[in-house]
């Protein structure tokens, strides 16, 4: 039979206090409760821990040996409790995220910054991957959370919607279409659009929402939204990009126009279905959900 944590706690208190009554007072319990716990511990061990000699409670040699080990257990429990407290207040821990470049370059750095201002001791690891492969990587355990566009169904994953963005058009201010307040889909059909060839979801979305806009009409192709924006700023065409991906510092001679009717882009977070989320992960999801609809 083994001693419980409560047995050890009361045994240490008796050793330090030198009496059952003082141990009971320090532990804020009754003396009979201390006596009963001590008797139970001795029954489990099979030998006495204390003897009353000369009117005083004296520890046996076995008790003195156990006391050294019990103090090691006490210190370990203290470290365990301290670790638990640090994790409860996010003073310790790691959050592993995975996101495509479109979200990682503009949206997530500001959100991570705000999150770490609240929890400065938390470690955050952001792994930037192509959107199409993130769900499989999350399912394989390469990160705890994946923030993606158009999250795909996967039996091993949970999906939580974070809201909707939309496709917008970025161009130079002297572009022939820049004088408009909004761009219609019809206006885009004959425009030179920078094709984002590396974004499968973007190509599928454009094919569905702008079926007349053909890839072969586009002189320039690139596989990153941020680069598409830079190319548009140089007059190389119109960048049709997710609103989240517009650079925070766009050149003054550029203009961003909404498209009507809107072309919606959904975003969500994915994580493993059969693995509980850490507290940092859940809090980060809540933080994203609060900001994304208004971003």
Low-confidence stretches: none
Beta fraction: 15-25%
Number of domains: 3
What's the CATH C level of the largest domain?
Alpha Beta
Number of helices: 11
CATH topology descriptor of the largest domain: D-Maltodextrin-Binding Protein, domain 2
If classified by CATH, what would the architecture of the largest domain be? 3-Layer(aba) Sandwich
Oligomer: single chain
Distance between the terminal alpha carbons, to the nearest Å? 60 Å
Give the proportion of residues in helices: 40-55%
CATH homologous superfamily title of the largest domain:
Periplasmic binding protein-like II
Report the biggest beta sheet as strand number plus sense, adding barrel if it closes: 10 strands, mixed
Count the strands? 12
Radius of gyration: 32 Å
SSE ordering: HHHEEHEHHEHEEEHEHEHEEEH
Principal-axis shape: rod-shaped
Mean pLDDT: 88
Structural class: alpha/beta
Describe the structure.
Helix content is 43%, strand content 24%. With 295 residues, the chain is α/β, with parallel strands linked by helices. It has 3 domains: 5-88, Winged helix-like DNA-binding domain superfamily/Winged helix DNA-binding domain (Arc Repressor Mutant, subunit A); 94-162 and 266-294, D-Maltodextrin-Binding Protein, domain 2, CATH 3.40.190; 165-265, Periplasmic binding protein-like II (D-Maltodextrin-Binding Protein, domain 2), CATH 3.40.190.10. The strands form 2 sheets. Strands 3, 4, 5, 6, 7, 8, 9, 10, 11 and 12 form a 10-stranded mixed β-sheet that branches. A two-stranded antiparallel sheet has the order 1-2. Strand 1 and strand 2 (56-59) form a beta hairpin. The longest helix is centred in the N-terminal third of the chain and has 28 residues, at 61-88.
